[in-house]
């Protein structure tokens, strides 16, 4: 089973995991890493490495809150470092994309997982007003 690390600014990771647990229960092989006020990049990197190593899987999907932010930058940096795991990074993770990752990770090859997760995230964003007006 692919391991998942969710990371983001403030309490994003912990908050989205709290919401997911209400919808989907407590998932296995998932770690959260918050990037809180006053924390430095090296501390964030250390926490991310600890989270990666806490997972039993050799394949780990890192899901970050926003492209270009510090959690994203650290995740990308880890792609080039020997952390002992196969890593993939998805930026802009929302609840729809994370839930999708949790549900399909056992049945989708690791190489295909990011594309599937990104598609679910996009489909989870809907202009409901336009839909109700029949313009979608």
Question: What is the CATH architecture annotation?
Answer: 3-Layer(aba) Sandwich
| Biggest beta sheet summary | 4 strands, parallel
SSE order, as H and E? EHEHEHEHHH
Number of structurally distinct domains = 1
Shape descriptor: globular
Number of helices: 6
- What is the CATH top level name? Alpha Beta
Share in β-strands:
15-25%
Uncertain segments are: none
Per the CATH scheme, the topology name is Rossmann fold
Oligomeric state of shown chains? single chain
Going by CATH, the homologous superfamily would be Phosphotransferase system, mannose-type IIA component
Percent helix, as a range, is: 40-55%
Please provide a brief summary of the model.
The chain has 136 residues and is of the alpha/beta class. Helices cover 46% and strands 18% of the residues.
Offer a few descriptive terms:
single chain, 136 residues, alpha/beta, Rossmann fold, 4-stranded parallel sheet, 4 strands, 18% strand, globular
Fold and architecture overview:
With 136 residues, the protein is an alpha/beta fold. The protein has a single domain, classed as 3-Layer(aba) Sandwich (Rossmann fold), CATH 3.40.50. The protein is built from six helices and four strands. A four-stranded parallel sheet has the order 2-1-3-4, sandwiched between helices. Strand 1, helix 1 and strand 2 (30-35) form a beta-alpha-beta unit. Helix 2 crosses helix 3 and helix 4 crosses helix 5. The longest helix has 14 residues, at 41-54. The model has no long low-confidence stretch (mean pLDDT 94). Residues 1-125 form the PTS EIIA type-4 domain.
